[in-house]
Design goal:
alpha+beta; Glutamine Phosphoribosylpyrophosphate, subunit 1, domain 1; 7-stranded antiparallel sheet; Class II glutamine amidotransferase; EgtC-like; glutamine amidotransferase
Length: about 280
């Protein structure tokens, strides 16, 4: 469906991961070996928190309907901006039109959200899911994607208080509504959420066959494993990245996030927790 990455650590130029790595996000937009679609050229988006952000600072974002490999503004922006935490996403549209309001990541207050996957049978369940969004959030839905509805449904169900519980409640609602309309496997995808300090990355599908999700190992370990790799020297000890697919072919650099798991990244450390493992 799409490809995405989330970075947290010492401030870096966005271009280091979006443009410059061996299998960068822009490279994946042209050729995604592990993706459901090889080409992800239906727009892109970047959301970033400023270097001097304090708790509650909202992120900035840039969306474009251009293919990521074709947009000169993306190169200008990613070389000019440094951030300690950013999201980037390249889109392969699966129905909703190609327009800026349908590009990820989505933003509300200090929260960022992006999704790779789909809510099956959206033409059947859209109305019920939209009506389940709280009245104060419903007018904020600007696009037509299932992903944006999922975000505001999660906000309705407590994402800001407890991201894991809020996402779990939203996905349970998606499955409940989907099953009521005869949709066998309503939820598919990987989701990234951040409040500007932490990152939560979810891998879950109703079928138990979710899109791929990986995260990097500790940067100090990686630099010790590959001291000859000059490209690794520009990253600090807390640099971590969560990705739809690895950004390089260095053996051992990335580990796969298990099915039905949330990977939580806080202060340079990962932990994995089961997520809706017994939902079906």
């Amino acid at each position: 469906m799409c490809r995405w990455l989330a970075y947290s650590g010492e401030p870096i130029q966005l271009s280091k991961l979006i443009l410059d790595t061996q299998n960068s996000l822009v490279a994946q937009s042209l050729n995604s070996p592990l993706g459901a679609e090889t080409v992800n050229g239906d727009g892109f988006g970047v959301g970033w928190y400023p270097k001097d952000a304090v708790d509650g600072t909202p992120p900035a974002f840039f969306h474009s309907i251009e293919p990521a490999w074709h947009d000169e503004n993306l190169r200008e922006i990613t070389h000019a901006i440094e951030s300690p935490l950013f999201f980037a996403h390249v889109r392969a549209a699966a129905g909703p039109p190609i327009q800026q309001t349908n590009c990820h990541p989505f933003r509300h207050e200090n929260w960022l959200f992006m999704h790779n996957g789909s809510l099956a049978g959206m033409n059947l369940v859209r109305r019920d899911l939209a009506l389940a969004v709280a009245p104060e959030f419903y007018p904020l839905i600007r696009g037509t994607t299932d992903s944006e509805v999922l975000f505001y449904l999660a906000l309705t169900l407590g994402l800001r208080d407890d991201p894991v519980a809020g996402m779990a409640a939203a996905i349970r609602k998606v499955e409940e509504v989907g099953h009521a309309h005869g949709v066998e496997f309503p939820m598919q995808g990987t989701v990234a959420v951040s409040d500007g300090a932490m990152v939560w990355a979810f891998r879950y599908s109703s079928q138990g066959r979710t899109r791929t999700l990986f995260h990097s190992i500790a940067m100090a370990t990686l630099q010790e494993m590959y001291p000859e790799q000059a490209r690794l020297r520009g990253f600090g000890k807390n640099a971590r990245v969560i990705v739809s697919e690895p950004l390089s072919d260095l053996p051992g650099a990335f580990v796969e996030v298990p099915e039905a798991t949330v990977a939580i990244l806080e202060q340079g450390q990962y932990r994995h927790e089961p997520f809706l493992a017994n939902a079906e």
